[in-house]
Amino acid sequence: MDTKLTTPQIVVIADDFTGGNDAGVSLACTGLRVDVAFELPYHGNADVLVVNSDSRALAARHAASRIEALVHDCYSNPHQLLLKKIDSTLRGNPGAELEAMMLSTGKQLAIVAPAFPDAGRTTVQGQCLINGVPVTETEFASDPKTPVASADIGLLLQAQTTIPCQSMSLSQFSHRLNQYASDGPEIWVVDAQTDGCLDTIATQALAQKERPLLVGSAGICQALARQHVNTSPRCLLAMVGSMSEVAQRQIATVCRNARAESLVIDIENVLCGSPTHYLQQIINILSSGRHCIVHTCPDREARHRIPGLCARWQLTRPQLGEKVCHFLGTLTRQVLEAVTPDALYLSGGDVASAVAGALGARGFRITGCVAQCVPYGRFAGGLWQRPVMTKAGGFGDEATLLQVLNFIEER
Length: 411
Fold this sequence. Notes:
It is a single chain. The chain has 2 domains: about 10-225, Rossmann fold, CATH 3.40.50; about 235-410, Four-carbon acid sugar kinase, nucleotide binding domain (Molybdenum Cofactor Biosythetic Enzyme, Chain A), CATH 3.40.980. It has helices at about 15-30, 60-75, 95-105, 155-160, 170-180, 195-205, 220-225, 245-255, 265-270, 275-285, 305-315, 315-340, 350-360, 400-410, and strands at about 10-15, 35, 50, 80-85, 110-115, 120-125, 125-130, 135, 165-170, 185-190, 215, 235-240, 260-265, 290-295, 345, 365-370, 375-380, 390. Strand 17 (about 375-380) and strand 18 (about 390) form a beta hairpin. It starts with 9 loop residues before the first strand and ends with a helix. By secondary structure, the chain is of the alpha/beta class. The strands form 3 sheets. Strands 2-3-1-4-11-5-10-9 form an 8-stranded parallel β-sheet, with helices on both faces. A 7-stranded mixed β-sheet has the order 13-14-12-15-18-17-16, with helices on both faces. A 3-stranded antiparallel β-sheet has the order 6-7-8, with no helix packed on it.
């Protein structure tokens, strides 16, 4: 497990394990890294952290206490999107848990949309319907652990909270949200019969300067996922340690692509211990949606200057290579702790090994090949769990790295 404390973009608190998985799966399908935590604090690199409170069958006051404690441990940044996952049939303690989250976070508005149209769950005039039938006329009214006492969502919530609840149509919701000004905490129950209704709710909620607390089932999670589909251009971080002429021609060719930018690491900087400015340069390139090609060979003559470098710094060739590889491995780890490109390309066996070690990888699982000479797969364990491509320095032709970029952009 990674040792870094996770700082997710989205925090979801669910009241049971399978419900948490239902909330996370649609977000995971967009490419976001989704982890379901069994205990807090949680260490990792998740984009979405789903926390299971396991509180559905608890007494309301105990459920509220547990939620308050979890919020304290997993939600610390107001820029994070916070979502309360509830059961689509309203089982459990939705009112008590919702109130606990609002009080713990200071959220003044909660938007409750438990509809899940794909599963036949809709909200009409504030009523929870299962395939058009009020939930209290279905088997959920006699659930052995958590029976549902009312189909009126507002009344059901109001039985467990003193925060005012109001039910409204989708059009009323849109109108009121545009004019919303906080005058104390409020809970809005919003009608939804289709995925389009949930999309409207999610879109308008996310557009608010101060985001409300979203409350719902897997349906609102799917709507949220549709809002978070990654439409930004895919980008590659390439660490090229090879000084072969083939590798240099590959870099020159790929940098004719307007979205690719090369960055030369001056070995003198590495040896004298002043290379910190490279980190921010790489982060800036990747953050702008461009491919970043990092290499240590500025021209064809660079390899012939190695003996002079070794003599000046009193190093053998292997010692010099080890220092450069260690630096590139550490630099790669620092970059990936700050930004998340779509794939990592490692050229040169020593560099690939150094990067793998710096990232804490225990192995490499090969899953395919690009451009006939570039195996790709994923590291086993460690910080980086997205695609990794490796290439021997002298392999391929001038277009090899360009083909890798095209593969990343189209994949």
